[in-house]
Write a structure and sequence with these properties.
The complex is a heterodimer of chains A (about 300) and B (about 220).
Chain A (H helix, E strand, L loop, with lengths): L1 H20 L1 H35 L5 E5 L5 H14 L2 E6 L1 H10 L4 H6 L8 E6 L4 H12 L4 E6 L2 H42 L1 H9 L4 H44 L11 H30 L2
Antiparallel strand pairs in A: 1-3, 1-4, 2-3
Helix pairs in contact in A: 1-9, 2-7, 2-9, 7-9, 7-10, 9-10
Chain B lengths: L1 E9 L5 E10 L4 E6 L5 H8 L7 E6 L2 E2 L8 H5 L2 E4 L11 H12 L3 H14 L15 H13 L5 E5 L7 H16 L3 E5 L6 H4 L2 E6 L2 E3 L2
Classes of the chains: A alpha+beta (about 300), B alpha/beta (about 220).
């Protein structure tokens, strides 16, 4: 057990020494790996932010129920009692005067509203059903539309569905991108490890002649690949976090111009851990492939 | 200890470097393998060290038949040997001490203990003062002694050397052979391949004389 530990520690130390002994090569490899991981990581972070935008815009599904313009207080009470009977969930009554006032408050609308001869807006209910399954909402919409004095029922979920579909597509695209770059990372590691094996040929030969096992010979190369990948992952995290930091200010300004409040969420610590682990795992894989091929050829 | 019978090594292309050799080396013996250049000395050393595999015949070392040994068992067998090569095979990218530490790292000895033993081995060959030097800075004789320190640091039962005095002047060669003799005296089996027969008088070893791959009667 102690021997096992000592051997692994020696292998890690040797891998670190090799990384350190050729700083320019190491830096270039790290850049290649870091950038390969940065692009898909940035894609995932942006998609996460977009999803948050979608959620904050409308986390719950809504039905907007518009009455006819001539509907009176009695009709409103009638609709309210029907809602109480059929819908599980919340609703809120928006009186036509209140709606007009809100419209007036909106940017650039005050003059338009003032120029209107009379209030064109109907009374309305905003309904938030407890069950949000698309088919049930669709059925509910049909039921309500058949009630008296109901002019129009609008299901405010269509755009959410479209947005979701768009996000799914984006996610798929970024996943494909990630797979391609992962293959690239394995290839980069494969190549650097191949060069390592060539430059360490004397050591490998001597070690074998004096009783090194296959595992002993391979271990430093595996650690080298994994360390290089992990450092590349760390670099990717720094690039994504730095890039988002630069974008955060302008994005918040843009959101403010549209009268909203939105802050870009950066990658969290779990994303950092994920990137480092992914880099290490892929580096290890590349090293394994490379060492197996290079050493099989050097077999005495 | 080492028992060969009908040992033959044929290289691809048909050249028979060693032909039907039989001999026995007992534990603790000092053995010289002599013969002209190309007689098969190096091949015989490589066969004993399990670097080459016999084409025919059997070779039993420490009770294990090398011809039938699994590849995964080779590293553990080699740890019983201390090997000194004709071209030393020192690693020039690290210090003298680190060269001697390598066999101990391979068996996973803790660093502190390994350094202690490596320094003891360097002391034995008179190189302790040079432990921080690079092998390239050593003279030919010193490099050969460094190779010996690396070979013996793991306390092998058999010390195998291929032309260890090949590139050395008489004084340096004598130093190297004196070191081998000292290991022989403490019970290590020492097998030295050399074309130089002038030392036989001095050490009176068990001699295996090769000629064109065959063993001549002593």
């Amino acid at each position: 057990m102690r021997a096992w530990f000592a051997q692994h520690r020696a292998a890690v130390a040797s891998a670190l020494r090799r990384l350190w002994s050729a700083p320019l090569n190491t830096l270039l490899s790290l850049l290649a790996i870091g950038i390969a991981l940065t692009l898909p990581a940035a894609g995932f972070v942006l998609l996460d932010n977009l999803r948050d935008v979608g959620r904050s815009a409308s986390g719950v599904q809504q039905l907007s129920l518009f009455l006819t313009v001539e509907a009176g207080k009695k009709d409103v009470a009638e609709i309210e009692s029907r809602l109480a009977r059929t819908v599980r969930g919340k609703w809120r009554f928006v009186a036509r005067d209140e709606a007009l006032k809100r419209l007036q408050a909106s940017e650039g609308m005050a003059e338009i509203v003032a120029s209107l001869p009379r209030n064109p807006l109907p009374d309305a209910f905003i309904v938030e059903p407890a069950e949000a399954a698309p088919e049930e909402l669709e059925a509910l919409k049909k039921t309500i539309a058949a009630w008296p004095k109901v002019a129009h029922v609008q299901l405010d979920s269509a755009w959410i569905k479209r947005f979701d579909a768009f996000l799914r597509l984006g996610r798929l695209a970024v996943t494909l991108l990630a797979a391609i770059f992962a293959a690239g990372l394995v290839a980069v590691t494969f190549n650097t490890i191949r060069l390592q094996v060539l430059s360490q040929a004397a050591e490998v030969e001597v070690a074998r002649l004096i009783g090194a096992t296959d595992a002993f010979v391979r271990r430093p190369f595996y650690y080298f690949g994994a360390l290089q990948g992990a450092l590349g992952g760390l670099l990717a995290f720094a690039l994504v976090a730095g890039g988002l930091r630069l974008l955060a200010g302008p994005v918040a300004e843009l959101a403010a111009l549209y009268g909203g409040r939105f802050a870009l969420a950066g990658p969290g610590w779990s994303a950092a851990a994920g990137l480092v682990l992914a880099g290490a795992g892929l580096g290890w894989l590349g090293a394994q492939l490379s060492v197996s091929l290079s050493l099989a050829r050097a077999e005495p | 200890m080492i028992l060969a019978s009908g040992l033959t090594k044929r290289y691809p292309g048909g050249h028979e470097a060693v032909r039907e050799i039989s001999f026995e080396i007992s534990a603790g013996e000092m053995v010289f393998i002599t013969g002209h250049s190309g007689a098969g000395k190096s091949t015989l050393v490589k066969l004993i060290a399990a670097i080459e595999r016999p084409t025919a015949g059997s070779l039993v070392v420490n009770g294990q038949n090398l011809a039938a040994l699994r590849k995964s068992a080779l590293p553990y067998l080699r740890r019983h040997f201390g090997l000194v090569f004709q071209d030393q095979k020192l690693l020039f990218d690290r210090s003298v001490l680190d060269n001697v530490l390598l066999p101990l790292q391979i068996v996973g000895l803790p660093r502190r203990e390994a350094v202690r033993r490596a320094q003891a081995a360097l002391d034995k060959v008179g190189l302790l003062a040079r432990e921080k030097a690079r092998p390239i800075a050593l003279s030919g004789g010193e490099q050969q002694r460094l190779a010996i320190a690396r070979a013996v640091v793991n306390r092998p039962t058999v010390l195998l050397a291929d032309e260890p005095t090949g590139n050395l002047d008489a004084a340096a060669a004598l130093e190297v052979l004196e070191i081998f003799e000292s290991f022989h005296r403490v019970g290590v089996t020492v097998v030295v391949a050399t074309h130089d027969s002038q030392w036989i008088e001095r050490y009176r070893p068990h001699v295996l004389r090769l000629d064109h791959g065959r063993l001549l009667a002593a």
